[in-house]
Specification:
The chain has about 210 residues and is of the alpha/beta class. It has helices at about 15-25, 35-40, 45-55, 70-75, 80-105, 135-145, 150-160, 165-170, 180-205; strands at about 5-10, 30, 110, 125-130, 170-175. It folds into two domains: about 1-30 and about 105-208, Rossmann fold; about 35-105, no CATH class. The protein has a five-stranded parallel sheet, sandwiched between helices. The longest helix has 26 residues, at about 180-205. The relative contact order is 0.22.
Length: about 210
């Protein structure tokens, strides 16, 4: 059972998945907000039925799964529909995230969320770790990885919280400009030791 939750976030191309995987290699339990967000709209779930009722049956594909492309287009063009969807899903996602985090093994766990700041999930965690890079690095890495154009990537960057907004809520910052993974691993190992100590202290205080 993890009594201590660390929120891990970073913008597109920051390397947060690589960093999360490094923590996982140190036996830190990972709760992934993207996976939980998919779980709450799984085939047969009550929320998927509500989405079909609200938007129409065409929003469910032939495999009884959510047609994400169609839904993305709809909410992008209709802010009121986006607000309705957020009102339906965000409480469920928060509830499931916290439940999974509490059940995770280890003295602390990582809640990995690209939109930690945007969806105010940082208010649910005990500490925030931001994987930080410049916008130029975000663009360069994402262009290398994705088929998206520079313009499309720039739009994604602009739609996310700014670098400054993320740093304002950060308790810890992992600077990930280097392409040298050994250097990144060294930072992760140091932060991990720090979190083990903090989490144990937190646990001993809570049990008094």
């Amino acid at each position: 059972m993890s009594d201590y939750i660390v929120g891990l976030t970073g913008g597109i191309g920051s390397g947060k998945t690589t960093v999360a995987n490094m923590f996982a290699e140190l036996n830190v339990a990972i709760v992934d907000a993207d996976i939980v967000a998919r779980e709450v709209v799984a085939p047969g779930s009550p929320s998927l039925a509500e989405i079909a009722q609200h938007f129409g049956p065409e929003f469910i594909d032939d495999n009884d799964e959510l047609n994400r492309t169609l839904l993305r287009t709809r909410i992008f063009n209709h802010p009121e529909d986006k607000a309705w969807l957020n009102q339906l899903l965000h409480p469920l996602i928060r509830q499931n995230l916290l439940a999974q985090a509490k059940q995770a093994p280890g003295v602390y766990c990582l809640l990995v969320a690209p939109l930690l700041v945007e969806n105010k999930l940082h208010t649910l965690v005990d500490r925030v770790l931001v994987v930080d890079v410049s916008e130029a690095t975000q663009l360069k890495r994402t262009l290398k990885r994705d088929t998206s154009s520079a313009q499309e990537i720039k739009l994604i960057i602009d739609s996310q919280a700014s670098r400054q907004q993320r740093l304002e809520v950060a308790d810890d910052v992992l600077l990930n400009e280097s392409e040298n993974l050994v250097q990144t691993q060294k930072q992760v190992a140091e932060i991990h030791e720090k979190y083990l100590q903090i989490a144990r202290e937190h646990s001993s205080i809570s049990n008094v």
